[in-house]
Amino acid sequence: GAVVSQHPSRVICKSGTSVKIECRSLDFQATTMFWYRQFPKQSLMLMATSNEGSKATYEQGVEKDKFLINHASLTLSTLTVTSAHPEDSSFYICSASLAATDTQYFGPGTRLTVL
Amino acid sequence: GENVEQHPSTLSVQEGDSAVIKCTYSDSASNYFPWYKQELGKRPQLIIDIRSNVGEKKDQRIAVTLNKTAKHFSLHITETQPEDSAVYFCASGGTGRRALTFGSGTRLQVQP
User: Fold this and answer.
1) Which residue, of A52, A60, A66, B89, has the fewest CB within 10 Å?
2) What's B93's DSSP letter?
3) What DSSP string describes B13-55?
């Protein structure tokens, strides 16, 4: 089946630093990847849609200059949280969509803790 | 934009009983409705999905029904087992480039 990996799985950083999270589709090419954020005991909230070779589409209320998304290849999308603050602490999950279907497969998530 | 509502937020059943979770959506253009199971601290796992040209789909103990006219769909789990305990999310979407809109989740607890 389709496998999506995410790295790192957990990161703790100081306030003001930047953190990069990688999302890879391991056995298929993903022209579209999605980035979600999930706070404890809450649902997944879409942050942005990442399209290979073009600019990401951000959801309302998500700062594009704070959450930088790059989708340079068909198997890799990165999310960089710039100048992270404690309120950015959350579970960040990516998903990748198979081109021929609507099915999305999720990465294992990255738990970000900003001190 | 799309709005997905999910009920109930928590559901407790006895082992062997059935569990039903219901969702409604607002965008009539949505045509893809997956259900995900998420265990604590882990990724959502797709358990079943249905497309708008189908009214019902079944996979062993799990079934999903869709009523496009009323814009609602439901997840049915029969003969529940303790390992079914998790948070279940419904979602709606469309073409491959459209993101999914998730419901608020249902925490299912199956009592042994």
Assistant:
1) A60
2) B
3) EETTS-EEEEEEE--TT--EEEEEEE-TTS--EEEEEEETT-S
Min CA distance, A40 vs chain B (Å)? Answer: 9
- Residue type at A2? A
**Structure tokens of A22?**
């990688």
Q: List CB contacts (< 8 A) between A44 and chain B.
A: 44, 89, 102
Instruction: Write the CB contacts of A41 (distance below 8 Å, at least 6 apart in sequence).
Output: none
What is the pLDDT of chain A when averaged over all its residues?
A: 92
A43 contacts in B (CB within 8 Å)?
89, 102-105
- Report the pLDDT value the prediction gives residue A83, as an integer from 0 to 100: 96
Residue-level pLDDT at B96: 52
Q: What is the DSSP letter of B100?
A: P
Q: Residues of A numbered 79-108 whose beta carbons fall under 8 angstroms of chain B's beta carbons: which are they?
A: 93, 95, 97-108
Instruction: Please give the structure tokens belonging to residue B87.
Output: 């948070």
> For residue A106, what are the β-bridge partners?
A95
CB B67 within 8 A of CB B4: no
Give the Cβ contact number of residue B92 at 10 Å: 26
- B54 in helix, strand or coil? coil
Q: For A23-70, write each residue's pLDDT tens digit.
A: 999 988 888 899 999 999 899 999 999 888 888 999 999 999 999 999
Query: Tens of pLDDT along B48-95?
Result: 999 988 899 999 999 999 999 999 999 999 999 999 999 999 999 975
